[in-house]
Amino acid sequence: MEINKIYNEDCLITIARMPDNFIDLVVTSPPYNVDLGDNKYNKNSYDLYNDNREHEDYIKWLKNIFENIYPKLVKGGRIVINIGDGKNGAVPASSDIIQFMCELRYIPTTHIIWDKNNVSNRTSWGSWKLPSCPSFPTPFEHILVFAKEDRKLQTKGKTDLTREEFIEWSLALWKFAPEKKQKLFKHPAMFPEELSKRCIKMLSWENALVYDPFCGVGTTCYVANKLNRRYIGSEISEKYCETARKRIGE
């Protein structure tokens, strides 16, 4: 299979062509199923993907993808899933993902809270000054980390972590701003390079193979390339693939 390539196809097709015990690290952020395009906070939709599934169908879809990834990971390989909960926490997608990942035999490794310091929808009060039905906007997201068979990497390698980075990032509360380049890259739901950078440096050696099954405009692959890692991405949108390849090429 060709390395350092973004495949314009459904991730299940890419995964099926991978040999077993192949991937060192997965860093990804699947669609949140919050109806982008018709969401009152985000009127921009994905290029092709329908972000408004029935929740049960959405969770089954994700479970199937991560079940297929499992044999492709090396022993000790890690998966990082960045996810937000819908409807101000009323739809606990993060909890559902943790449950099915354990059912799939993944080992929970850590649960990082990403404090985005984003209070743009702070006026979503629900029942204003009344306890009848208050709303609780969530200016944070979840970064869920799992491992296959063993929490410890089974190989030794070279790290690019600095002392200061390790001290700061080893606390499971990360504070940095969300991505602000959505208009530049024409994608409605990008995560920032900082998220990929922290996950890749904390969880893999240099030259590791990093995979993103929901590649989007290529943030994970772009950062992996900069950090001397090999990468593979899958993305159904030809438009997003072209943007991702251009970012990496530049």
Explain what the structure shows.
With 250 residues, the chain is an alpha/beta fold. Helix content is 30%, strand content 20%. The protein has one domain (5-249): Rossmann fold. The chain has helices spanning 11-17, 55-69, 93-103, 163-169, 182-185, 193-203, 219-226, 238-249, and strands spanning 5-7, 23-28, 73-83, 106-115, 140-148, 173-175, 209-212, 230-234. An eight-stranded mixed beta sheet has the order 1-8-7-2-3-5-4-6. Helix 2 (55-69) links the parallel strand 2 and strand 3 (73-83). Helix 2 packs parallel to helix 3 (93-103) and helix 6 packs across helix 7 (219-226).
How do you describe this structure in short?
The protein is α/β, with parallel strands linked by helices. Helices cover 30% and strands 20% of the residues.
Overall morphology: globular
Major β-sheet strand ordering: 1-8-7-2-3-5-4-6
Number of distinct beta strands: 8
Please state roughly what percent of the residues sit in beta strands, choosing from under 5%, 5-15%, 15-25%, 25-35%, 35-45% or over 45%: 15-25%
Low-confidence stretches: none
The total tally of domains equals: 1
End-to-end Cα distance, whole Å, is 24 Å
For the record, the CATH architecture stands as 3-Layer(aba) Sandwich
Q: What is the tally of helical segments?
A: 8
* Order of helical and strand elements: EHEHEHEEHEHHEHEH
CATH domain class: Alpha Beta
CATH topology: Rossmann fold
- Classification by helices and strands: alpha/beta
Fraction of residues in helices? 25-40%
CATH superfamily: Vaccinia Virus protein VP39
Structural Rg: 18 Å
Largest sheet: 8 strands, mixed
Mean of all residue-level pLDDT scores? 92
